[in-house]
Amino acid sequence: MLVLGRKPGEYVMIGDNIKVKVVKSLSGDLRLAIDAPREIVITRGEVWEG
User: Fold this and answer.
1) Contact 43/32 with Cβ under 8 angstroms?
2) Would 30 be classed as within a structural domain?
């Protein structure tokens, strides 16, 4: 597992076509914005674990 520190507005690329960006909400929470091709399945952890 790779652990990175990122600030709001910064991002990481996974391969050539998946961008994961850290964004900050109005309430101060940090969120992830994921830009990936439609054929890539993205599932939240709580759903994955059942």
Assistant:
1) no
2) yes
